[in-house]
Design the sequence.
């Protein structure tokens, strides 16, 4: 098979970056897999086994007793955040695609500004706003809406993960809106106009016309959002509770444990998280393939 010169030149230009990325990824995977199998030569543990996975999945150790609750909590937070972000982004993008150019440009600027805001900064802002000792609770108490700030509903550091979900929904909607808008720009309004002519209402147009058009881009973006949230540590650590914890927080806790034997369990949890994300990715790709 002959490769044309422009293609060969592009691959040669990409080779240094691909080489560095491949080496870093390969070393990281070797490091993670070997430690999850109990190969910890710095403490004299050189016997390879599946004991860490058995401890995590079997429920006989502290890590195992918390693992399944953490997995369920992680899937809850990640799934709800991804679903709400995707639905809201689709509806918002449809609305924005019909706005006049000046207003549209201003909206795009606001969306990009949100993307530039670090997650930790926004998480701290939500904590200061929504906590029972936060700004909104104090203002509500001052206005007489509630007797004391303590009566304000618990929205952060709560058992249901509402604060974490609010954070990710508000941060990921702009990311997905930009993806959907980019797809809608390439499609124009012809399909929607035909659907309107045939008697379709606004919701029917979104469901039957817009969603199929943007689904490849939206599903890919939603998968990226799912993977990011599922593996994120800092926001759940700040806005979450001590139990249940998300898997990322649990894994890091065991990895940094003073007892270095617990590191294998932390690495095992991390690799199980990788398998979950890969499984979700394969499922989404299969759904995409079946709908084409």
Sequence:
């Amino acid at each position: 098979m002959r490769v044309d010169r422009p293609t060969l030149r592009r691959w040669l230009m990409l080779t240094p970056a691909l080489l560095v990325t491949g080496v870093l990824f390969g070393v990281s995977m070797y490091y993670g897999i070997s430690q999850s199998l109990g190969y910890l030569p710095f403490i004299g543990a050189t016997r390879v086994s599946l004991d860490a996975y058995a401890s995590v999945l079997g429920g006989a150790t502290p890590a195992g007793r918390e693992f399944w609750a953490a997995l369920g909590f992680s899937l809850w937070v990640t799934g709800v955040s991804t679903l709400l972000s995707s639905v809201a982004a689709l509806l918002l993008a449809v609305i924005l695609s019909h706005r006049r150019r000046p207003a549209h440009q201003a909206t795009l600027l606001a969306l990009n500004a949100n993307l530039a805001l670090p997650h930790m900064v926004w998480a701290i802002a939500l904590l200061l706003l929504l906590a029972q000792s936060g700004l909104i609770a104090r203002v509500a108490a001052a206005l007489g809406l509630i007797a004391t700030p303590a009566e304000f509903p618990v929205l952060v550091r709560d058992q249901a993960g509402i604060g974490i979900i609010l954070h990710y929904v508000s941060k990921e909607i702009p990311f997905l809106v930009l993806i959907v808008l980019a797809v809608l720009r390439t499609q124009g309004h012809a399909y929607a106009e035909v659907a309107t002519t045939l008697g379709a209402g606004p919701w029917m147009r979104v469901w039957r016309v817009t969603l199929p058009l943007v689904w490849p881009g939206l599903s890919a973006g939603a998968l990226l959002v799912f993977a990011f949230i599922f593996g994120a540590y800092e926001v759940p650590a700040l806005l979450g509770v001590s139990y249940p914890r998300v898997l990322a927080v649990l894994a890091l806790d065991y990895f940094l444990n003073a007892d270095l034997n617990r590191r294998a369990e932390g690495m095992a949890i991390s690799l199980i998280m990788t398998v979950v994300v890969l499984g979700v990715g394969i499922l989404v790709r299969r759904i995409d393939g079946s709908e084409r």
The mean pLDDT is 87. The radius of gyration is 23 Å. The longest helix spans residues 62-96. DSSP finds twelve helices and no strands in the chain.
